[in-house]
Amino acid sequence: MKFIPSFLPVALSLSLLSLLASEAVFADTSVVNNVDPSIVNSAKNTTERASEASLDSSESSSEQINQQVDEHKIVVRSQWRSRDLQNLPTSIAVLFSDSLENRSAQHLDDVLRSVANVNFNSGASRGRFVQIRGIGERSQFEDPINPSVGFYIDGVDFSGVFGAGTLFDVAQVEILRGPQGARFGSSSLAGAIYIETEAADSETDYIDLTLAEEGTFGAGVATGTNLDEQWSVRFAAEQFLSDGFIYNQFLNRDDTNNFDEQTARLKAKWQAADDLELNFAWHHLDIDNGYDAFSLDNDRQTRSDEPGFDRQMTDALSVQGTLLGASVNTEFSLAVSDTELDYGYDEDWTYDGFHPIGYSSFDRYLRDWQNINGDLRWLSNQSIDMLGGKTDWVMGVYFREEEEDLTRQYTYLANDFEYDYQTSTVSLYGELQTAYSARWSSVIGLRFEQRDTDYQDNDGINRTTSDNMIGGNVAINYRWSASETVYGLLSRGFKAGGINPQTELDLPLRQFDVEKTHNAELGYKRRLTNGRLQVSAFYMERDDQQVSQYTTFVRPDNTTEFIQYIGNANNGRNKGLEMEWLWYPNDTIAFDASLGYLDTEVDTIFLADGSQIKDPDAAQAPGYTYHLGLTYTPDQHWSANVSFEGADDYFFSDSHQERSLPVNLVHGRLSYQQPQWKLSLWVRNLTNETYYTRGFGGFGNDPRDSYATKPYYQLAAPQQIGIDFRYLF
């Protein structure tokens, strides 16, 4: 672990001591700002009353406590049952719409750095590759990916397609840390991100406008209404444009790394009968971003004659239903999505003639990804006597059919490379939630998943695999008081094996095996008089760890091709701490913070040339992450927010020793509002710090230094200033 900013330990220590001394409360959400003081007072009164309650095993005591807790709680939507975050035995951060607004967040990658032990990697126009607790993918070229971090929007599975994470008209973002094998299966080895957009019956109507440096413009409208007692509908649409932060010297253009993102969403709720509710949704994304990020001089001035692109066209339809029964409720969901991805880049990063050996190439990956998934489950609506207590149960079956067709168009291929990759997944799952007394409860979850894979390409490779995987969790909750909960958790996650399609690889390297993760976790959650606190400690063992590796291939003309692939390392270990809190010292100030500590180790990484790397840190796993935020609201018109966030340096890859820079960023926002409108001035990266979102180990690509081996980086955005305007109608 490298140097930690000197103010950080002092600030955190003094803040924590002062808060504990005054019985202030912290939050289990990473960022929750601009909360109405009446809510704070309600939470304060609730906590004071609850702390006086006597906790015993009597029925009246249990009912009293539950009533007190229900008066003010944060509802988590990503579970089979909506749960109060306070009593959910796992480490989870919830970002509300206020938090997203304070960051002027356009995309998920604008807020991830504010969450403890969460990181992301670009290699594209957006942070398309997310890591939680040091686990997650870092790129995608030829290989089809079974993601380590699940990604869901209103219950629709977008795992592996994080480009869909635009944030217009989003109600809350939930980030679940640690294996979620029982809930989400093989797409959640490291955790999951669940986005809940505004509900169909939300009647908040508004228009948003954004203007900022680098030709940045955004416009969006969201409106909803209750048509009658049965039907509610909501529509939201946004267009976001920006030239980006790259200047192409050769083309004399400043928009080759631009953003052009359209988001549209239509939701409807139909109360078909007293006992039947149906929810419909249509999600549409049209993304036409540029990708011209790497420079021979590691700056923001490129020389590409064929700037790349990062495009996505997605349409998804879903229906979710709930049928209430006398003792059992039935829920079902069905979602169909079609996504076209078009990703390409100028591989030589320069123009024709720059390389004296005549090296000029372009690499393009066109994907058509189709997905259909369905879920049918039954939930008890009356507790039964089971396992020595009152038990609520869930059981269900899940299926998913995916097909991914890839066409790679590459200068050095005689013909386009094509493959067809199909997976068929069936899961059986169940969960038991048992309350033994007013203090003690448990959660037991189990999932069995079978995943069949069929791969064939025009290089003559035809392979089928079948993986049977089991995941689950066992958790014990102890309600220390009406405002305090302690939990212990054991969980198991899994990630399916797969195929490396790279034609240059030897056959033994073209297949990799299932990875398993075992997680032990202890946590503490507390509501205090004016805030919230969450602390968790975890230890994870990784078996047959899948790691991204690379080798180089020398072409006949003596130029070098960079080949990335997935292989299995020996076991690995990840351990760490997460702490998040929120404090309201008075009605005008809100202080929020998060702190993550992470220590990772991989036993051995085997490279394609037969060499080994012993006991390295895992890639994309910073030793610490932090966020500190302060919101000041002196009256009903003005508010100001400043936030500090950062991360330790880390390895970019498992297969080389190149590291990032430590990151320490400052963001600010000043707002003035009237009943029907709000105007905000904001700045990101106030100190204009230089840091990286992607990096490669040494290879030669610059003829000016005789193709000397050196590292190359993708730079993050510099300082940017802008204004937001919201009009309510």
From TrEMBL:
<dbReference type="InterPro" id="IPR036942">
    <property type="entry name" value="Beta-barrel_TonB_sf"/>
</dbReference>
<dbReference type="InterPro" id="IPR039426">
    <property type="entry name" value="TonB-dep_rcpt-like"/>
</dbReference>
<keyword id="KW-0732">Signal</keyword>
<keyword id="KW-0998">Cell outer membrane</keyword>
<keyword id="KW-0406">Ion transport</keyword>
<keyword id="KW-0813">Transport</keyword>
<keyword id="KW-0408">Iron</keyword>
<feature type="compositionally biased region" description="Low complexity">
    <location>
        <begin position="52"/>
        <end position="63"/>
    </location>
</feature>
<dbReference type="GO" id="GO:0009279">
    <property type="term" value="C:cell outer membrane"/>
</dbReference>
<keyword id="KW-0675">Receptor</keyword>
<dbReference type="GO" id="GO:0006826">
    <property type="term" value="P:iron ion transport"/>
</dbReference>
<keyword id="KW-1134">Transmembrane beta strand</keyword>
<feature type="domain" description="TonB-dependent receptor plug">
    <location>
        <begin position="85"/>
        <end position="192"/>
    </location>
</feature>
<keyword id="KW-0812">Transmembrane</keyword>
<dbReference type="Pfam" id="PF07715">
    <property type="entry name" value="Plug"/>
</dbReference>
<protein>
    <submittedName>
        <fullName>Outer membrane receptor protein involved in Fe transport</fullName>
    </submittedName>
</protein>
<feature type="region of interest" description="Disordered">
    <location>
        <begin position="43"/>
        <end position="66"/>
    </location>
</feature>
<dbReference type="InterPro" id="IPR000531">
    <property type="entry name" value="Beta-barrel_TonB"/>
</dbReference>
<keyword id="KW-0472">Membrane</keyword>
<keyword id="KW-0798">TonB box</keyword>
<dbReference type="Pfam" id="PF00593">
    <property type="entry name" value="TonB_dep_Rec_b-barrel"/>
</dbReference>
<comment type="similarity">
    <text>Belongs to the TonB-dependent receptor family.</text>
</comment>
<feature type="signal peptide">
    <location>
        <begin position="1"/>
        <end position="27"/>
    </location>
</feature>
<keyword id="KW-0410">Iron transport</keyword>
<dbReference type="InterPro" id="IPR012910">
    <property type="entry name" value="Plug_dom"/>
</dbReference>
<feature type="domain" description="TonB-dependent receptor-like beta-barrel">
    <location>
        <begin position="249"/>
        <end position="686"/>
    </location>
</feature>
